[in-house]
Amino acid sequence: MILLCILALVALSFGETLSLDIRKASQIALEGNRELIRLKREINSLEDLYMFRKAERFMPKLNALIDKESFSLLGEILLLDLGNRLALIESQRLRLEIKRELLRELERQVKIRLTQLFMKLALAEKKAEVAREDMAVTYVRFDRERERLKQGLSNRVEVARWESKYRENRARLLEAQREYNETYTEIKRFLGLPLDRDIEVNLDSLLDFKVLEDKTLSTEAILRGLNNNYLVKIKGLEIKYLEARAKGEKRVLYPELYAYFEVKNRFGSNSDSFKGSANLVLRTPLFDGKASFYRFRSFLELRRAVEVERKDILETLKRRAMVAPYDWDELVAKYQDARTYDKWAMENLDLSRSNYELELAFDLGYAMSTKTEAERRVMKAKFEIILYLMRLYDMLGLDPLLIFEGKPNLFKDRVEEL
After folding, report:
1. Strand duo 61-66 + 18-20: pairing
2. Can you give the pTM of this predicted structure?
3. Ramachandran angles phi, psi of 63, nearest 5°
4. Which fold is adopted by the domain 2-32+82-253+288-413?
């Protein structure tokens, strides 16, 4: 990853066009995305706080006291702790692990969001292509009707109708171009690249994705991975965190053994030497007005509330797992419908080319536009399938980009109904 960033910086320095596929772009995003950088800073802060809690437990403390009569050094060290501070240390570790789990989820979301931007760019480009072809055909018809009007073979209503269609398609083209440029800029901003940086987006991995039409999703495989869902894991960590806090409150009355020492020199004394003393102190709190009991019970109630949340999340995820095969069948059906339409559009285009004559030139233009629109529909249907699988992988705590490698396998053979 470090080598990749170095290469990217070198390319930037020479001002060359940076070619990005979804994997390379994801690696750059994981280093340059602003939200990820912010969360990593928070984790660094929590790591330092956790190390402080660990070091503080048995770390010696030394204080200097100076007044008008003497100078003293006072030292203190904890020798025996029956768990009072261990619970606080463990709770701090769990807070850190919760943040790390959120970071892993955010990294997966960054990959999904980046894939969406790549898809949006591809669809905007195809939309512009459709509008450009439609605009060309309608402009020719509009221009021809104007000539026919001069010859007395048409009327102003027909001329206005074709001009309206031409203007409509031109507006669609400009809209698509605006969407393309906005998305192109958003990709650079999302990656943390300078907005004036030239990039080339490689869509091959998306366009070449193979849809498993003869397979269906396995509910059993999905159910097995639900415990890896980030929300389930976070709720589990929250339960342990609240248990640790409750444990810490329960141990508040436990004894602690301290060692104290003092080195003192009284000003004006005949002796220049320091006098020292040391002592062991066993400190045992006896009563705190039941404050620790109420705090202990409060954390236990919070833990029970989180347990209910975790159970509800698992039930929701199980429901999604149960309907996943039906979601998949619906998406595949839409994809097959788009491919069938594309096949018809290709046949229609071939027929228009074989029947090409001057009077049928417009039919050929419309056939070309229809074919391009059919390609856009196939592309959109495939993109919906890819996004669905990426979100499914994310639900199971898996890297969304693994779908392009076909692993892990969440599919099973489809059983055809008789």
Report:
1. unpaired
2. 0.82
3. -125, 145
4. Outer membrane efflux proteins (OEP) (1.20.1600)
